[in-house]
Amino acid sequence: MATPNLLFSLFCFFLLCLFSGEQQVVEATRASPFAFKPKKLFVFGDSYADTGNNRKALASSWKFPYGITFPGKPAGRFSDGRVLTDFVAEYFGIKTPIPYRWRKELFGRLKYGVNFAYGGTGVFQTLTPEPNMTVQIDFLQQLLNESVYTKRGLKSAVALVSLAGNDYNTYLVNNGTAAGLPAFIASVVGQLTVNLKRIHDLGVRKVAVTSLQPLGCLPRSTAQYSFQQCNGDENNGVNLHNQLLAQAVNTLNKQTNSTSFFVVDVYNAFWTVINRKNQAHQVSPSFENPLKPCCVGVSAAFSCGSVDEKGVKQYTLCTNPKSKFFWDTFHPTQQGWAAVYSTEALQNSLKQLY
Where is the signal peptide (predicted)? Predict the structure, then answer.
């Protein structure tokens, strides 16, 4: 029988294998020469950025067929493969930071940063009982208190902050009204602004925050239109969020007399891909019907990865995830994220780091 030490060593080896294949993603043009070369990446937010923090009992990201493209089995990413964090890390020339939950098992990887993002969360408490963004920042503060990092060491770090709309979903589920939505959007952006400033005050030199993607174009919204058109009303709310966010980031830069804060333009990157037509010799992939997901439940009662009490799957899966922009009703495929990453909108956003 294997000894406890041997079993622990094998477990750590498995984790290293899981997180070591995360470098080779889509190549893109980077700014050169670098005025600032980040050495660490800290990630906060939700399922667009989470690489494995959610508890297995709560998250679909640990169920088959999630992860079938990378790493070949469910590993905690809300996609068939790599997500936004992986592509941003590649752009910055940093290894994908490990999820916070593996910080003790993979202590040696902490030099590249940490991913604190938890799928389903927001700036406020959402329907998912996982740490919200305030608590995620508390985790970084705790690592500083434990001298895992120093404030001086964070000067070589960049933060990626993802907010993909879970606060708004919670608002609607809790019977929030259309009349009250603008005020709620302002409160979400207000709390997000507090969070961004706090991350910077902890010592992180550059803080990147994603704009909100066109929520009305997610399959959960386009299903009512047979995946043929977006919901314009939802996207109007998104536009208000993004306008307020741009103003908040501009104010933060003025207050700090810096260019430390910048927006990663996920909104226009999504729009570019969704509206792209098939063109010969184009660098970025296009999708025949970008609004239709690859993996979806057989009815409204089920979702991607669902099985019944007998273990029979209750979802349908496309034959080729690379042909789809969306993986499930909310998240892009790895190929979808690659397309988003390669857009001019996202590339120009990331260049703001320098």
Answer: 1-28
- Domain of 222 in residue numbering reads as 40-276+334-352
Catalytic residue among 265, 303, 331, 349: 331
In a domain, 325, yes or no: no
Pull the structure tokens for residue 56.
């297995």
| pLDDT on residue 7 | 42
Domains of the chain: total: 1
SS3 169: helix
Give 193-208 pLDDT, tens digit per residue. 999 999 999 999 999 9
Asked, for residue 282, whether it belongs to a domain, the answer is no
Which among 47, 61, 221, 349 is annotated as catalytic? Answer: 47
Task: Say what the pTM is.
Answer: 0.90
- Does residue 114 register a pLDDT over 50? yes
Inside any domain, residue 303: no
- Selecting among 80, 303, 328, 349, the annotated active-site residue is 328
For 11-70, what is each residue's pLDDT tens digit? 444 444 444 444 445 444 454 444 688 999 999 999 999 999 999 998 999 999 999 999
Verify whether residue 328 is a known catalytic residue: yes
Output the six-digit token pair for 316. 């349908």
Residue 221, both tokens: 């919204």
Say if strands 261-264 and 206-210 run parallel, antiparallel, or are unpaired: parallel
- Report the C-alpha gap between 57 and 77 in whole angstroms: 14
